[in-house]
Write a structure and sequence with these properties.
alpha+beta; five-stranded mixed β-sheet; three-stranded mixed β-sheet; 5 helices; globular
Length: 177
């Protein structure tokens, strides 16, 4: 079976967030969850440290992203870290939001990005801190099997990683005894 290779931007939309002015107290402490790149856990995101107000959202380039959005850190020490929103939230500008089309399964993309993170970091630019641009994210190449195959691959990887985590926890308990 041959698989086509495509650029991420062909099968997903990307967007970056924004940071309301820190000096304006009216922008923070509202009802809108606001995710920073340091909060990306390489898995699902269940909570965040800060919230912003509707005014903070409207007066910045931040935007509320839907549950299920895949997030990637673009700058500094966290470059390449991933997260998946389990609730609607906004992000700061150091986070790239990736919204796959119907041709691309989100979990498949998550595992692909996790797999290529080392290469992505090697090709990042910048002085002391690595950086990747939204354009670089859009140009990431990935194999694109049919959606049913993507779902199967992602499911298999998820199950195998769950087994590894179970074994890791068992080993940790055994070492404590």
């Amino acid at each position: 079976m041959s698989v086509d290779w495509i650029k991420l931007g062909e099968v997903a939309k990307t967007s970056s967030g924004g940071t309301p002015a820190r000096g304006n107290k009216n922008y923070y402490g509202g009802d809108i969850p606001w995710i920073k790149s340091g909060e990306l856990p390489d898995g699902e995101i269940f909570s965040c440290e800060e919230t912003i107000t509707e005014q903070g959202l409207n007066d910045s380039s931040a935007k509320v992203l839907p549950e299920g959005t895949l997030l990637m850190a673009m700058y500094g020490a966290t470059v390449g870290k991933l997260g998946v929103l389990t609730f609607p939230a906004a992000t700061n500008q150091a986070v790239c939001a990736i919204l796959p089309t119907s041709q691309l399964e989100k979990d498949y993309l998550f595992y692909w990005l996790l797999y290529i993170r080392g290469d992505l970091i090697k090709t990042s630019f910048g002085g002391a801190q690595p950086n990747i641009s939204q354009a670089a994210v859009q140009n990431i190449e990935l194999p694109l099997p049919v959606i049913t195959e993507q779902t199967k691959i992602a499911g298999n990887l998820k199950a195998q990683l769950a087994e590894v985590e179970t074994a890791r926890q068992a080993l940790e308990i055994q070492q404590q005894e």
